[in-house]
Design goal:
Helix content: 25-40%
Strand order of the largest sheet: 1-4-5-7
Order of helices and strands: EEHEEEEHHHHHE
Structural class: alpha+beta
Radius of gyration: 15 Å
Oligomer: single chain
Number of strands: 7
Largest sheet: 4 strands, antiparallel
Strand content: 15-25%
Distance between the termini: 25 Å
Number of domains: 1
Shape: globular
Number of helices: 6
Length: 157
């Protein structure tokens, strides 16, 4: 089953997630999760009939946010946490912008949903998260700028 006519398919986590939880963030923000990737985090997916690879580099500060409306509804750890790290990287680098003619944010949101499904999240959780990021993510996305060194690459056939 695809997510809302999602043209991103065959999403896969290609590496274990290696993080170090930032103790200062726990002291400062309580339950907020903030972690630093200690190794590159690789995912792959099929889009536009091509295979793509995306790598979030070691050292990236992973501080995925769950909209307050979803607190207590959607489990944060697991599929959502792992997918949201990639989603945050996609927002921060705006990696899809040059490929999507103004549709880069939606593509990042669809990848979030595809990765959540690949990680075992149920469709209901995916729909809730997708709806929340579509409703609340525009300001965060607009605050970021395109970064050419974004690690999104087409995988040769």
């Amino acid at each position: 089953m695809t997510l809302f006519a999602n043209d991103i398919t065959e999403a896969r986590f290609e590496a274990n997630l290696d993080i170090r939880r930032n103790l200062e963030a726990v002291k400062r923000d309580g339950a907020r999760v903030e972690a630093i990737l200690t190794a590159p985090y690789h995912v792959s997916f099929r889009w536009r009939d091509l295979r793509w690879s995306l790598t979030v580099p070691a050292g990236f500060l992973a501080a995925p946010s769950v909209p307050p409306i979803l607190h207590g509804i959607v489990p944060f750890w697991g599929a959502l946490f792992e997918a949201s790290i990639v989603h945050d990287w996609c927002y921060w680098t705006r990696c899809f912008d040059p490929l999507c003619q103004g549709d880069g944010r939606r593509r990042a949101d669809l990848l979030l949903g595809a990765l959540m499904r690949a990680g075992g999240a149920d469709l209901g959780d995916c729909l809730e998260v997708f709806t929340a990021v579509r409703a609340a993510g525009a300001k965060s996305y607009a605050a970021c700028t395109f970064k050419p060194d974004n690690n999104l690459v087409e995988v040769p056939a």
